[in-house]
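Bumping with the actual sequence this time:
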Amino acid sequence: MSFEEPNSLQIRVTLVGIEPAVWRRLIVPRGFHLGQLHRVIQAAFGWSDCHLHEFLIGGLSYRDAEVCEPEFEDDARSFDESGVRLRDFNLNDGLSVLYVYDFGDDWKHIIEFERLLALEPAPRGASCIGGARARPPEDVGGVHGYAGFLDIITDPDHPEHRDTKTWAGGHFDPEWFDNETTDKDVRNALRANRRIRLHQPNPKRQGRSR
C-alpha cells in the first residue's frame, strides 16, 4: 500500500437520462481546475464545446469567467471555474457534482469521485481508462430528441431516415465506444489545436481505407 500524497483522481462521468448508460471513467490530476476538467469531459464524450456549460456543486454554479456575471438582476451569480481545483474538495463528504453542457439540449453529467490515486510519475494530463456507448449527436434536442432520433435512424423505412442519417455524419451506432480513440482525445484535451471529432468513425469508410 502506498502512503504517498494522492496526486490524481479516478472519476466516472455519466450522462443523465439515457439507458443503457453512456459513461466514461477518467484519471485526472488533482491539480486540475474545473475549467480544465470541462475540457477533459468535452474530449471524453466528443462534444464540440460550442455551447455554454456549468458545474453545479453544493448549490453553487461555476462557469467560464466570461459568463459568470448574471444577465438579469435577480439571476444567481456564478463563480469562475478556473479558481477552483479538484484538490479543494473533500471527497469524503459524498460530494455531488453535476456538469451541464448546452443549456438548450440540457445535457447533464453526474461526476462521481471513485478514488484517490498516488501515481508515479505524477500525470500532467488526463486519461480515459473505460467507458460505454456513444454520446448523442450534438444539437439533437436533448434526451427526448435523442429518443426520437434513434427511432428514425434505426428504421430504414422512416421518411426522415436518409436525411437524419446524413445529418448525423452518414453513420451512427449508439453502442460505439473505442477506448483507444477516446483516450487519445482526452490526453490532447488541453491542447489549443486539439482535434474535435464531430462524428464517430464510419466502419464502411474505414474498411475502404485499409
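The C-alpha cells above came from a reply further down the thread. The two ends are 46 Å apart (CA to CA).
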